[in-house]
Task: structure prediction
Amino acid sequence: MDHNDQHPHDAPHVVSYGQYVLIWLGLLALTGITVALAGIDLGRWVIVTALVIAAIKSTLVLNIFMHLKFEHRMFRWFVVITLATLAIFFILLFFDYAFH
Amino acid sequence: MKPSESAVHAGHHHRDDVGSKIGMWLFLFTELILFGGMFLAYAVYRLQYPNEFKLAAIELDALVGTVNTIILLTSSLTVALSITAIQEGKKHLAQVMLGMTQVLALAFLVNKYFEWSHKFEVGLFPQSDVLLSKPPGEIIYFGLYYVMTGLHAVHVIIGMAILAVMMGFIASGRIAKDNAVRLELGGLYWHLVDIIWIFLFPLFYLIH
Amino acid sequence: MATTAVETGPDFYHEPSARKGLRGWIFSTDHKRIGILYGVTMMVFFTVAVIIGLLIRLELLYPGKTIIDPQTYNTFFTLHGIMMIFLFIIPGLPAVFGNFLLPIMIGAKDVFFPRLNLLSWWLFLAGGVLALVSLALPGGPADTGWTFYVPYSVRTTTNVLPALMAAFILGFSSILTGLNFITTIHRMRAPGMDWFKMPLFTWSLYATGWIQILATPIIGITLLLVAIERWFGVGIFDPALGGDPVLYQHLFWIYSHPAVYIMVLPGLGVVSEILPVFARRTIFGYKFIAYSSLAIAFIGSLVWAHHMFTVGMSDTGMFIFSFLTFLVSIPSAIKVFNWIATLYKGSIDPDVPLLYVLSMIIQFCIGGFTGLLLGTLAVNIHVQDTYFVVGHFHYVMFGGTGFALFAALHYWFPKMFGRMYAKRPAIVAWLLATIGFNLLYFPMFFLGYLGMPRRYYDYLPEYTIYHQISTVGSWVLALGLLVMVVNLIVALRKGAKASANPWGSKTLEWTVASPPPMENFHEIPVVTKGPYDYSEYERPHETK
Result:
């Protein structure tokens, strides 16, 4: 993907109102699931399920609301690099704390 | 800006929306990592104090938290809708959507204000006698709670300011149907504020 | 690329449409002016930090009190560290040379966000002034060491808060620079300049930009937490309230280790830039060097806890961090091998920039080897928090990046200022600086090995001779720096006017006038060749 595009600006990808509302409904549903699951005693799995659902919600926000799905692939790589960096911080930190 | 300098900028600024977006995403990454540092601290202490975290979380009202989550998710929707509206040339609709976003954001902050003042009333604030008499894990929980939700609230306020500026730009025409990238950038910031809350919510309110 | 006739016309210093006087500079969004602004303000901070360093060495000339009391000594090494790290070495090469040269090297007229660029400098100035102001405020300057370790940084009554705020603001400045450079490199390369036709200095700035983006926010939040701790007593790092001081160290070093790669990567880029010119050979292993910059940025983010081997981490954690520390030496070594291969059978011109580069490479290697020693768990137990560490990091940061900065200064001086400096005093300065530097820091490895702790105001008599050699070294070094600076200042006024390309280099910045005009290029060039095409110098029998 290169620099000064000499051609006129591409018309931006427009997401319809309906598509946005659908995603919003999905987010609300996932929120409901999270709250419901919190009421069940899942022991150690509570945090994992909560984080997984939060990750799914974030993916929806990133891809649709924040347009990541419709942008050039490069943006997705950027996001992956950033999240991977954060993940690595967590993992390496836990090599210390989990083995105390 | 002096003529020559603006010539420079006219020369290189064949208005590059992709470049502007790269800049904004990079900035969002810094915000993500900023909060990431706090989540790292949360993770370490949750590992250390699993039971005290559960005990302390009882003080938080899961209903208020859920309502606030719905508020923020809806505010993300309204921002996204405002962008579609401006891309279709519907200035008025865009402003209405942004206005609704502001109202929702304000509601979020009002809720937060009541949450915090309730906790202050029952003596649960840093260095209070009540808090200091609790086990260390609970003190840490509340410390993290105040810092993380406080920092998040600061970002909500910043987001509101950014969106207010965007509303001004729409009114003055600096944001228009064929020139909407600024609104997209403002929207990106707002969605990030939402994403951070998406993680804060279960980690503080739903530990049962 | 073919050298075109260089256009005449006013250079960027004399741009007629710019505002007159100081306002034309401090409100300028031109990347070259901003680079010069950084250079001037940085010189001030550097000078203060050097003087403090000399005073520290003077105090250590004899055991016991020599010139200052212990409290002052503690504030001195704190300030020296804060200023050198946050006000000199981290901004250093990117802010001065990156700003000035990056757009020209890729064939652009400016960076992508010129106003953000100006903001970066304003923030830099604000942070620096705040740090200096903390000297004068009641309570005295911070005495925590530049690392602000808790719990002391929470309890001390010295001016920790201004120091923290200064560092926070400077972090913002750094982030904005990285953001600007990454965007610029992605979007503003001249037609024909694909990624692998970019100069290697540009690659290093790209890798550095990513570290600035991904690592700096962590120090931001960490310092903010210390400030919050001082204000509100939240307890996040306070053991009495359930907090963990070691967590502070983890968070601090998650940034501060990658920070040293922010410091050194551009320096390594400068070396890759200068060697081909003065060996009259294309760089050996261009792609390896480019990728190794990215590899260093990545692996360098995984090694932070090697600063903490003695604090009580788990064995598992320590093994892993030690292993990763060894791993990060590999891409650095790859660069050194490629540099040597570049020099091999080259047509060497031992001019001033190359001399600084050669010192740099040797000193960087010494720093690197001692880093491996420090990364070895069994050795670390003995030398952690001793002068061995002080020697190590001065070798990489000063002997490495610092000397690379001097090399960059002497290489790009004619381009930036339109004048050439006198060669002989420059060589004298280089010799004094190199000799002085090594006299100053090499004894520290012995001191550390023999057990002398760092940051100590006093010491046992058996360490005296090493300290004295070191202090004398500091004087020789200071003399060298003085000669260097005076020589360059004289050149500004009386130096011979420099042509567009006095070194015969092949990168784009040498195709424009010295100094360049405001817009760099009247016409954006079209790039067809790589940046180090010295094929016309190759001997006929040589095969590629």
Q: What stands out?
A: The longest helix of chain C spans residues 245-279.
